[in-house]
Amino acid sequence: MSTSESVMENVIAEGLATALHNILPKISGTLQPFPNCRCTPHCKRKEDREVALEKATEPSHHHDFILAEVCHLFKVRLYITQDVDFITHKPASVHDVHTYKHEDGPTPDKNTIAFDLSQNYASPWNAFLLELLLQELQSCCREENWPIKKSDNYIREILRDHYKCLCTIWRNAQPKVAATGHLEMPGKVKAHLINKWTQAGKESRQATCHHNKYEHQKLILNHITALKSDTYDDDLPSWQWLGHLIKTLGKHGMSSEESAVENGVENVLHVKTMRWCQNIDHELEIVDLQCTVDIDIFSPQGLCPLHRICTTENPTTKWDTVKGLLLALYDGAWIASLTECQKESLEISTALFPWMKVAVV
Q1: How far apart (Å, rounded) are the C-alpha atoms in residues 344 and 340?
Q2: Which of 37, 88, 273, 342 is the most buried (most CB within 10 A)?
Q3: Using CA atoms in the order 82, 84, 88, 89, what is the torsion angle rounded to 10 degrees?
């Protein structure tokens, strides 16, 4: 055999060994528990549809239960008491991440979790750790016999979403490059964090207000409809229609308010304008008025309700436009101002919604 043929055989043998090393799970005492593999787009879409169907058919407390368990697991494994403590998280070293990605180094430490915060959840390093947490959560579910059980894909999505939230918290706490080209001082970083947390708290309170307002309106209308169904009142169809309107619009269609002082004396609420939404202020006022009129049915509880002012001069809400509503629930002039592409992105339903003129007698 010639020297050139011998060299060629060695090159081929080395290439084959490298290919097998990259394809097969590496062996370092034991096999990798989570071999790195990418899901095909078709498989990913199928998984997304299954998770979406699972979410659409579950009671809301199911998701809350799993989310609480996921948050608890992150806190236990990361040794934090609240999400904001994640700003002190020490990321995995660049060397360890690089060697693991190219299958030259060991797997991430299962006891001391350190995420690669420069990458998203889909990176090989982070995917390994999230799969580890998924297995721990499912194992705990089986051992403790949880009343609510979910598929791996369902829990995996919640784990990924929570990782993204923690990443955002960590990145917001990192010093930014100032206009001078230097990193921000700790005091500046602290001020930024306080502003972000204040804004996040305000948005959380507004979201809670939206939810409570929707549940309050729905509860009142259900109660009135049940009472009038027993007595067969003539205005029963009107109250049934109001209930259908509120339920169709949903909690995301509830406006928020900002408190103010009118004429330096009276505390009032300025209802924020939702330019995309059909004006239903009159219908909501009817429901609120009913609570005041029927004091024999609705006992006064809590603080005295403030006067709500609805005008076009009120500030505009910063909440995103709600998608997937019926066309009749969007403001006609606002819809007409949109482009065809914007209309398609709203996923507007073309089902009919009969409007009814409701008056207080």
Answers
A1: 6
A2: 273
A3: 70
Question: 181: how many CB neighbours lie within 10 A of its CB?
Answer: 6
Element (H, E) at 201: helix 186-231
Structure tokens at 236: 């029963």
Residues 169 and 115 sit within 8 Å (Cβ to Cβ): no
Residue 261, beta-bridge partner list: 267
Give me the DSSP letters along 256-325: -EEEEEETTTEEEEEEPB-TTB---HHHHHHHHHHHHH-TTTS---SSPPPEEE--TTSPBP-SPPPPS-
List, edge to edge, every strand of the sheet that includes 257-262. Answer: 257-262, 266-271, 307-309
- Entry pTM: 0.58
SS3 assignment, position 57: coil
Name the strand (E) or helix (H) holding 27. Answer: strand 27-28
Q: How many Å apart are CA 80 and CA 71, to the nearest integer?
A: 10
Rounded distance between C-alpha atoms, residue 136 and residue 27, angstroms: 23
Helix (H) or strand (E) holding 30: strand 30-31
Structural tokens at position 102: 């190219």
Which two three-digit tokens encode residue 89?
Answer: 């998280």
In the structure encoding, which two tokens stand for residue 133, read together?
């947490």
Q: What is the mean pLDDT of each run of 10 residues along the chain (361 residues)?
A: 56 54 43 50 79 84 92 94 91 92 86 93 94 95 92 93 93 82 80 81 79 84 85 82 87 66 56 79 78 56 56 70 86 89 88 80 60
Task: Name residue 27's beta-bridge partners.
Answer: 31
Tokens of residue 266, six digits: 């009276």
The alpha carbon of residue 275 and the mean position of all alpha carbons in its chain are separated, in whole angstroms, by 23
CA end-to-end distance (rounded Å), the chain:
107
Residues 6+ apart with CB under 8 A from 319: 206, 252, 256, 274
